[in-house]
Each structure stands twice: as C-alpha cells, then as structure tokens.
Specification:
The chain is an alpha/beta fold. The chain has helices spanning 52-61, 63-72, 88-114, 150-162, 171-180, 184-192, and strands spanning 11-16, 19-25, 33-36, 42-46, 78-80, 83-85, 120-124, 131-133, 138-142.
C-alpha cells in the first residue's frame, strides 16, 4: 500500500497588522501581484514556483501602501431586506436562499400567464449576465436578480422565456416581448445601469 501524499496547499490565509491576506498560487501568474478585493481582504497572487514565505515578505514590504489603499477604499455594505451582513460570503448565502424561494416560482407564474414552456431552471451567481436561455430551453437565472426591483426581475424572467421561442434578439423577439410588456425597452434601459454584485 502506497503512503498517502497530501498535495501541497495552493492557498494560505494570514493576518498581518489586522489585515486579512490570502496568498494564492496561480499557474498563470509570472509575478507576485497584490489586489484589494471587495470583501476587504488582500489577495496576493503568486506563481506556482514562488514560496509562501517570499510572497509574505513581498506583502510586508508593501504594507504601508496597502494600508493607505485600505483606509481610502469605501467599505462595501451588504444589506438584504434590511439585514446587514458582515461578509460577502454570508450575503451571497442569504441571497441564494431567497432566490431559491422566489425566482423559480415567479418564473413559473409568468410562463403560465403568457403560455411559455421551459425545460428546467438553474440559479447561479453570474458575473456579467442577469439570465440566459439555452437552445434546449434551460433557463439560468442570476441570484443577483434579488437585488433589483420586482418590475426589473419580471423583465429578465420574461425576456428569457421569450428566448424559448425566439433564440436571438431579432425584430420578432422584440415584437413578441413588447406584446407582453409594452415598457420592456424602458425596463431594459434601467437594467443596463445596474451592476451585478
């Protein structure tokens, strides 16, 4: 029986002067790089060949500048239904839980109202899209939709349902969508000004 060889860790977390540092090995990195992340921690991305001790020393050398950036960076607040969350992870967990209760049910209501059928629905945290519909009529919805007003959520849901029939954004797509929702273009314009979390 061969001895179990545990793979070397690719990530380590340490606190330096009260600041959370995440040291992460990245096969695509050629140099050690430092970036401040949304959840107020410092990501130190490093090449696979670099040692964690070398990356830590690099972080310490740049600590005065890092502290300045930390002090000047606005602290992002995570609030859902009046409840404040201390971290992005906990906020996303709450968002996902609420999305599971609301989005599939609301999608079903709108589909029934306008006579659309879809295969299945999946809830995801997507970086750039609010939703998508595959050629097999599988609908993906971004849990970030729960940060929007109800009329914008309904716009996205109906938009994806129309894609079960019209697979692109041709004139026939917009004609169908506008027949159900006359102010769809106005809602789309507002949605473009909103950012996914």
């Amino acid at each position: 029986m061969k001895p179990y060889n545990k793979k070397p860790a690719c990530q380590k977390t340490e606190y330096i002067d009260g600041i959370k540092f995440v040291f992460r090995k990245n096969p695509l990195s050629k140099y050690i790089r430092i970036s401040l992340k949304q959840d107020r921690y410092v990501l130190v991305s490093m090449p696979k060949r670099a040692s964690f001790s070398a990356a830590k020393e690099f972080a310490k050398e740049n600590l005065p500048e890092i502290k300045k950036v930390f002090q000047n960076a606005p602290q992002k607040e995570y609030i859902l239904d009046g409840e404040r969350f201390e971290s992005r992870e906990k906020y996303i967990c709450a968002l996902r839980k609420k999305a599971k209760k609301y989005l599939p049910e609301r999608l079903g209501e709108i589909a029934q109202k306008y006579g659309y059928k879809y295969n299945k629905v999946a809830l995801k945290l997507m970086k750039t899209r609010w939703g998508s519909c595959s050629f097999k009529n599988n609908i993906n919805l971004n849990i970030s939709l729960l940060t929007l007003e109800e009329d914008l959520i309904d716009y996205v849901l109906l938009h994806e349902l129309v894609h079960t029939v019209e697979k692109n954004h041709a004139k026939t797509f917009w004609a169908r969508l506008l027949s159900h929702m006359p102010d769809a273009r106005a809602r789309q314009k507002i949605l473009k000004s909103r950012k996914v979390i």
